Amino acid sequence: INIPLRLYSPLDAISSSRVLSNQLVVLTSEGEELFRISPWAKYCHKHPDSNTYDWIHWDPVRPFLYQHTRPKRPRSLRIYEAHVGIASPAEEIATYTNFTLNVLPKIKDLGYNCVQLMAIMEHAYYGSFGYQVTNFFAASR
Fold first, then answer.
1. What confidence tens digit (pLDDT) does each residue in 96-121 have?
2. Which domains does the chain have, with CATH numbers?
3. What are the CB-based long-range contacts (under 8 Å, 24+) for 25-34?
């Protein structure tokens, strides 16, 4: 099906480096506006009363400055697959802080040199374990 579409942003002039509720709009040939999140969005915010998301555009004035030297490349790759949200003995959704402090040291001690984080992409329904992704480029909180 060949449907002529036009993309535009409802925010033409951006004066701030942080813009809330930024969306792309797909205008169909029938004049219908379809609001979509940019596929390149780095961060999305879920509305508490629904399963809809807004793209939060972040464009800081100063680029990120790395504080540490790049690690040396290992001779062989040893991958540990982990899910941050279930990486806790407590009956709770675990946090990145918990994962950093309590899980990563154990992974390193086991001799792994690579971590594959599962279900890190933004997803609306937690019970899906991240398989029902709402944005491929935004890390879930």
1. 999 999 999 999 999 999 999 887 77
2. 6-58 (2.60.40.10), 79-139 (no CATH)
3. 28/3, 29/3, 29/4, 29/5
